[in-house]
Amino acid sequence: MKKTFYILLVVLMAGGIFCYTSWNRWFHNPPEADYMTPDFPDRITWTLGEDIHSRTLSWRCGEVPDSAFVDFVRLGTTDTLQVPATGTVVESRSGKSVFYQAHFSGMQEEAVYAYRITTGTQRTPWHTFRVAAANNFSFALFGDIHIPDSLLSSMVAVLDTCPTYAGAAFWAFAGDMIERPTDAYWCAFYDALGDVPLRRPILACTGNHEYLKALVKPLDTRWVHTFVNPANGPEKYRGRTYYVDYAPVRMVVVDTDGLAGPADYVRVRKWLKRILADNPQKWAVVIMHHPVYSAAEGRSNPLMRLAFKGIFARYRVDVVIQGHDHSYMRRNSYMDGRATTPVYMVLNSSPKNYRQKSNPVADCVGYGERFYQYVIVSADSLCVRTYRAADNSLYDGFVIWK
Fold it and tell me: pTM of the predicted model, to two decimals?
C-alpha cells in the first residue's frame, strides 16, 4: 500500500512539474497593444472564389460601418460596374475594425481589370489586376512566415517582379503567416507583402500561430474577415476549410489547428472524401498546416495520418503541402519501388529554425535554410520547384505527369 502511495506521489509531482513548465507554451498569449483602425481603406486583399471566374475583395476601414462600394471595369471596355460591399465590426482583444467585402463573378480568363474602393468619403486610387488563364498557369507558395524580415522582402520582390515568376495566378500560404494574433504582426505581414494582395489573390491556410492559446483555442477574429474564402467547407469550418477549382486543379485547404476532437476529424474526413471523390479537375492539391509526415525525426502527428493518409492515397491527391516544422522535406509515395503520388512536402519560409534530426525516410530535406516554391500547372504536368531564399538557387524539384 505504501509503495503504491509513493508511486502515485511521484507521478503527480512529475505531472505537476510538466504542467508548470509547459503552461506558457499551452496557455500564455502575449498582450496585444491598443490600436486604432485608420479611416481609409487598408489591408486590401483579393481572395479566390469557388472557381476561376469569381473573386472576393476585402479591406478594413475605420471603426464605424459606412456605405461602401467598388467601381469595377474590364480594361478595353467602357462599362464600369458599381459593386456594393458589406461591412462587419470585428473586435479583437485590444481594438476593433470594420472589415468590408465585395464579391465578383463572371471574370474572364486573361482579362485585365481596374477597380477602386469607396468607403464613406474615402476613395482609393485605381488599381489593376489580371486573371490568369486556366489549364496553363502558375502560383507561388510559402511555408511558415511568422516574423517578416529583409529576406522575406527579398522573396516577395523576386516572385513579384522577376519576369519568370510575375505571371503567378495567386500566392498560397501554408499557415503561420503571423507570429501571434496581434495588430502589430498583421501590420508586419502586410508591410512585407506590399501591394501584392491588391493585384494577386491570396490562398491562405490557418496555422497554430493564428490561434489564441487556450484549452479550446479560438481563431483570431480578424482571420476570416481578412481572407474571405469560399463557404463550401464543413459547416463549423466555413471560410477556414474550403476548396477552389482553378482548372485543372482542385486546391483543397484544411484548417488542421481547428480539429479539437474526434468529432472534428470525422466531420472533416467525411467532407474530404466527398469533395475528392467528386473532383472534376485533373489535379488535386491539399494545403494543411500540420504534416502527415513530419520533416524531423521524433516529431509526429499520428492523428493526421490516421484521419487523412488513406483518403489522400485512395482519391489520388497529387501533392500535400504542409508547414509547422520550420524545415523543408519532400517525401514521395512508392508503389512497386517506383515513386508515385501523393508527394508530401513540408515548407519553411520563416527565420525561426529548430534544431532537429532529419526524417530518415524523406527523399529530400533542408535544415537551417529558408525556401519558397513556384508551381507550374499545365494540362498534362504539375511541376514544383523549391528555391533557396538566400540566393534564389534551385534546391529541389519534381514533375508529376498525367
Answer: 0.93
Please list, in sequence order, all residues whose beta carbon lies within 8 angstroms of the beta carbon of residue 205, skipping any fewer than 6 positions away: 172, 173, 174, 175, 253, 254, 255, 287, 288, 289, 323
In which band, very low, low, confident or very high, does the pLDDT at 359 lie, cut at 50, 70 and 90?
Answer: confident
Report in angstroms the alpha-carbon separations of 85 from 59, 75, 128, 204, 397: 10, 22, 19, 21, 42
**109-113 contacts at long range (C-beta below 8 A, 24 or more positions apart):** 109/52, 109/133, 109/134, 111/74, 111/75, 112/74, 112/75, 112/76, 113/72, 113/73, 113/74, 113/75
CB 341 within 8 A of CB 371: no
Cell for 365? Answer: 530535406
CA–CA separation, 159 vs 252, rounded Å?
23
- Dist. CA 377–CA 362, nearest whole Å: 24
Number of CB atoms found within 10 A of residue 44's CB: 20
